[in-house]
Amino acid sequence: MEGDGGSEIKQWCLSQVKGAIDDDVTEADIISAVEFNHSGELLATGDRGGRIVIFQQEQESKTLAHSRGEYNVYSTFQSHEPEFDYLKSLEIEEKINKIRWLPQKNAAHFLLSTNDKTIKLWKISERDKRPEGYNLKEEDGRYKDPTSVTTLRVPVFQPMDLMVEASPRRVYANAHTYHINSISVNSDNETYLSADDLRINLWHLDFTDRSFNIVDIKPTNMEELTEVITASEFHPLQCNTFVYGSSKGSVRLCDMRAAALCDQHSKLFEEPEDPSARSFFSEIISSVSDVKFSHSGRYMMTRDYLTIKIWDLNMESQPVETYQVHEYLRSKLCSLYENDCIFDKFECCWSHDDSEVMTGSYNNFFRMFGRDGQAGVTLEASWESSSPRCPLRPWRVCAGSRRKEDEIGVDCLDFSRKILHTSWHPQDGIIAMATVNNLYIFQEKLN
Amino acid sequence: MSCSLKRKLQSEDEDEKEPKVVAILADPHPAYSLQRETVLQLSLQKLCSHVETALVRRVLITNTLRSIQQELSQQGALIMTQTHSGATEVSWGAGVGTEGSLTPAWVLEQDGELLFSLHSSIPAHSASSINRSSPKDSFSTALSEIEDLCPTLTVAASSTPFSTSLSVAQPDLQCSSNKNGRLSFPAVEMSEKEAQIHTGSNGPCDSAHLSSSIFLPELSLDDFLFSDIDNFLCDLNPCGPNPGLAQGSSSSKVVSMVTDDLLRSLTNQPFKTDLNELDHIMEVLVGS
């Protein structure tokens, strides 16, 4: 394994693969969102067909020591349907762009899911009992003739097979002219933000007929548009603070106490461009594809095309750490521009204790970086070359087209197989990520 | 005349593996120019494709195009800017202070001839690019003109050159589709008589209402975002065998501006645009 001998080197094992194993991938099955809930018990995935599948972790297995429970399908439902905007003659895709869980308040689970235009609040609840013994209804639901009732009884709850129901509790629609790229639940658990290319709106979870616009970067003259919003998130602890990343590689931190419309940022995080690395694609590869606060709220991570940057919120001038995700692609940017891969938006995530960060790459590789100075490691999400409970072997990418064990040439990489969506268990060493249509779950090997 | 020129270029470059030949004799960074041209062409293709593209992509591609165009213009090309009042002012790039003319009148009178531009400062490394060979499609034609370091005009094809007007470089002018056979770039427009004004001895054209600018920065983003892209750029046809004749609804020609004085001074010959002449000029410049 790579890394110094200093800190404990973590090893990862393939735990599960969900989804069809064959190569026959329908467009609708392509996973477009992956998200653990706040306890890690539930794992939600969204796909391009507008469906959400929720997996639930089993209780910790008693037979296998040091093994965490497996994730099994808990609920499947159709979240969004395709719509047609008649005014613009455009189809609105049902693809799920983001899923965000609400912290659990009662027995039911709530999540927000969004496509390009509409956000929905879903309630996922269990039903394992049902009332029996109605006076006016038969068991199959038919109504009795009231005159035939001679005695009264109190209905009682009887156990039944567990049924998981998902019901849409709110539909937040018609607030976004452009495509929604982010949603983020506030720490006050009452409000959330939704961001599209040019605007960010603040919602109250209870009200669907109004939202407040808090950021608007649309120029009066659209010809002057040179920058769009690409990602946005609320601070995990300060309910007045949020950030948004832009296509020019900058991140703005805004304080909602300062003004109703937060067009003036409170902080601007921007790293000066390295003139020696300038190319035609400098701006495109600097575009922020994801921004995530650390759990502590002290740091913020941004993902652009080639790097991960960790920012200290107290220092705007430059990141405190920069990790090269796949620097070997820098010489291939022209080809990646041609095949549009340069526009791929990779997500990134923090470990539960903020000591590691993880992000996806091409060829079904994903990268993990320890923040304590360990070198990054490249692992592969592949059900063919991994066996459960066997630690993943790291890969190296070299120049040219060599391919041998544990090493692969840049020219052999498969750019159609990419890991864009990743999520880290909030409390444990479990990571989930989506390849094109499979969900991979890896567990940290406990020694 | 130009058709034979075109064919000649075509045949010359047929053997080239790379259809887009950067025939810059003195360019020390041909790879860079080649990549720039590739990126330029890719960007235009992406923007003009009929597939609906996300706003963020369109913005990024447009910004890339703009930066390339700025780079090209900063390499010393003649830049003309249109002020709000409509008067034209001339600015020279790359610190070249030569008082040059704009397109000489006789040039404009050429019947559909393709002209080649020379960099006004002609430092060793910034030679002009000879018109690209064998444009396989309209994009190549457009791009080859863009690649010329001097600004280009687009001229609607018609039986007499410049008898029809082009569309003006108004910054907020929307791209308009030409129903009557003219190609219009929003950036470039000149009225018929204005085109006749330029001579070598005139100074920077106060009187020349010729305005041409490298059209990309003048493009309204709305052209790509909101307008009907079909009629924009995609209607370019390669210069046909008779570029001087009206070729239907969407043929176009491109005229490059040359610096008359400069050429005269270099070649000491009556200025004549001819590929052979240009080769000779280039040889003189390069000193080969």
Automatic annotation (TrEMBL), chain A:
Keywords: Repeat, WD repeat. InterPro entries: PP2A_PR55, PP2A_PR55_CS, WD40/YVTN_repeat-like_dom_sf, WD40_repeat_dom_sf, WD40_rpt. GO terms for cellular component: protein phosphatase type 2A complex. Gene3D superfamilies: YVTN repeat-like/Quinoprotein amine dehydrogenase. GO terms for biological process: blood vessel lumenization. GO terms for molecular function: protein phosphatase regulator activity. The keyword Repeat applies. Belongs to the phosphatase 2A regulatory subunit B family. This is Serine/threonine-protein phosphatase 2A 55 kDa regulatory subunit B. It comes from Pygocentrus nattereri (Red-bellied piranha).
